[in-house]
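agent> Task received from the user: take the single chain below, predict its 3D structure, and emit structure tokens. No templates, no multimer pairing.
agent> Plan: (1) validate residues, (2) run structure prediction, (3) serialize to tokens, (4) report one or two observations.
agent> Step 1 OK, no nonstandard residues flagged.
tool_call: predict_structure(input=
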Amino acid sequence: MTVAEGAGLPVTVLLPDTVAEPIEIYEQSAALRMAIVERAGVGALSAKWDQPGLYILIDRHGTDGSWASYVGKAPAGIRARLLTHASHKDHWSRAVLIQRDTTHGFNSAQVAWLEGRVYDLLNAAEDAVLHNKNRPGDETLPAFERTALEASIEPIVRVLRLLGYNAAAPEDKLAPGPSAKTPTHHGVTLQQVMAAGLLTAGDQVISTNGAWPAQAHIDDTGNVVYQGTVHLTPSAAAQAVRGGATNGWDFWGVETPNGLVRLSTLRARYLEKKDAT
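)
tool_result: status=success, residues=277
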């Protein structure tokens, strides 16, 4: 069947006859082939999953709504790696597999970079807990390749959401009290991200959603300026673009020499630095 969500491009979902077989998803805009496979069904993966890709091992939800996961790469092929994890990692119940649905597919450097990018995504998510002890990834990939690979992130987020795992970063929140005018996220503001050297006044921010292209910039007080209007939060600026509630920390990204980096990733890096001090 083919389904579409909002302004997103359609995906094709192939539903198997039994739960032991993987559900396959084909996403056209980023040329992705993905699969949802239960732990007991890893042995049913076909030979096409012997190609390079990455995977997310997902635990069952905790009683508090949290969910744990492990992000990994498989430069020599996903199927063999999943079979190993089925024998040696007992925490996960299902996996999401990601490959490029093209003649040549991903190469080892691309899947290594995507591994780190998906790690950043889940590390910034409100209810996600990562089993990875250290951030993986390959930062040697050229910037133009990173920009192309960034298109893979939104389809991955949507598939996780379809499964009941919210990978979006928390939205802006206002601190309680009548005098609270500064947008925060667990005590974090854009001003603090700037003070940590992770963001600079004048930085351009670009929409990470190809269906809603837009550019804005960060002013010297940590506001987001879009089409001449000052917005106190990234989400307010993103809402001005889309005309509806939007998580601006995920919507906006900053161009860096290493490619586009979402504000939610910068926020997660700030929190890591803060926890380390």
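agent> Step 4: summary for the user.
The chain has two domains: 2-162, 173-276.
agent> Done.
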